UniProtKB/TrEMBL annotation:
Catalytic activity: Hydrolysis of DNA containing ring-opened 7-methylguanine residues, releasing 2,6-diamino-4-hydroxy-5-(N-methyl)formamidopyrimidine; 2'-deoxyribonucleotide-(2'-deoxyribose 5'-phosphate)-2'-deoxyribonucleotide-DNA = a 3'-end 2'-deoxyribonucleotide-(2,3-dehydro-2,3-deoxyribose 5'-phosphate)-DNA + a 5'-end 5'-phospho-2'-deoxyribonucleoside-DNA + H(+)
InterPro entries xrefs: DNA_glyclase_Znf_dom_DNA_BS, FPG_cat, FPG_N, H2TH_FPG, Ribosomal_uS13-like_H2TH, Znf_DNA_glyclase/AP_lyase, Znf_FPG/IleRS
UniProt organism field: Jatrophihabitans cynanchi
Names of the cofactor(s): Zn(2+)
Protein name: DNA-(apurinic or apyrimidinic site) lyase
Keywords on record: DNA damage, DNA repair, DNA-binding, Glycosidase, Hydrolase, Lyase, Metal-binding, Multifunctional enzyme, Zinc, Zinc-finger
Annotated Pfam families: Fapy_DNA_glyco, H2TH, zf-FPG_IleRS
CDD domains linked: BaFpgNei_N_1
Keyword Endoplasmic reticulum attributed: no
């Protein structure tokens, strides 16, 4: 799933490549992905892209200015992605064929040049990619419910947010209404950097642990944004994988202590941690096989 750093990089990429260009048309290949109907997608036709923004893990293409501004907002979910196309076919795509969900055509950068733009695609059978066209981003339910953005969070804000959380720490910091922007992969990286167990109760953190967690959120996400911004959309996934220290590296040595990185698996996902760095040497049981060790 694209998280804060990748969505920030996609917004930067769109500001560079799409801003100042007019929308020629949009094509919908997956009607279930479009969650709004007023204004219609045809309202984008002829409007000029003014920028791109990020709201947690939501990506917004901002079109028009002033009272006429519209926001084409996408949540890429677990298997969605944005693919930039330097040349788009003038023929509309056939609905229901392949991973394509939505296509946006932009006016050529140069006279007589090809129409370029981007596709929103989604792999797999669980279709969760969501597209909204709104006049105010807060009209998107997921955005209206977002907590403070992870990169703007102060140490005292974090302490206040976690004080009332009964959930385990990993679940708390990935809950978007608590903190916006952190997902499964970067929560593994943050908790490893902070030397905290994923299953420690959020409300039970000491002052020193809250400080370590806040420092880790800032350092891990800032470094990931710096690696990602400036990358082409096509290379962002590889850049994310190359920068991960523990996530998706089960069985490999921890880069800090050399211990073997452990894995906890759930029904449809897994996460990783280091027993030595995070759980005082204790291995956490696989959720599929037995109860989790505290």
């Amino acid at each position: 799933m694209p998280e804060l750093p990748e969505v920030e990089a996609l917004a930067s990429f769109l500001r560079e490549r799409a801003a100042g260009r007019a929308v020629v048309r949009t094509d919908v290949a997956s009607f279930s992905a479009v969650k709004t109907f007023d204004p219609p997608l045809s309202a984008l036709n002829g409007a000029v892209v003014s920028g791109a923004s990020r709201y947690g893990k939501f990506l917004s293409l901002d079109v028009g200015d002033g009272s006429d501004r519209l926001h084409l907002i996408t949540h890429l979910s677990r298997a969605g992605w944005l693919q930039w196309r330097e040349q788009l076919s003038p023929a509309p795509p056939k609905p229901g064929r392949g991973p394509l969900a939505f296509r946006l055509h932009l006016a050529p950068e140069f006279p007589a040049g090809p129409s370029s733009g981007f596709d929103l695609t989604e792999a797999g059978t669980q279709k969760r990619l969501a597209i909204y066209l709104v006049t105010d981003p807060r009209q998107v339910p997921g955005i209206a419910q977002l907590g403070p953005d992870a990169l703007s969070l102060t140490r005292d804000q974090l302490a206040g947010l976690l004080a009332g959380e009964r959930a385990q720490l990993k679940r708390a910091i990935t809950h978007q209404s608590v903190i916006a922007g952190i997902g499964n992969a970067y929560s593994d990286e943050i908790l490893h950097a902070a030397r905290l167990s994923p299953f420690k109760l959020a409300a039970k953190l000491t002052d020193a642990e809250i400080t370590r967690l806040h420092d880790a959120i800032g350092s891990v996400l800032t470094a990931a944004v710096e690696r990602s911004v400036g990358q082409r959309a096509a290379t962002l996934k590889g850049e994310k994988r190359s920068g991960l220290q523990v996530h998706a590296r089960g069985g490999l040595p921890c880069p800090v202590c050399g211990d073997s990185i452990g894995t906890v698996s759930f029904a449809d996902r897994s996460f990783q941690y280091c027993p030595t760095c995070q759980t005082e040497g204790r291995e956490l049981a696989d959720r599929r096989m037995s109860r989790l060790l505290r």
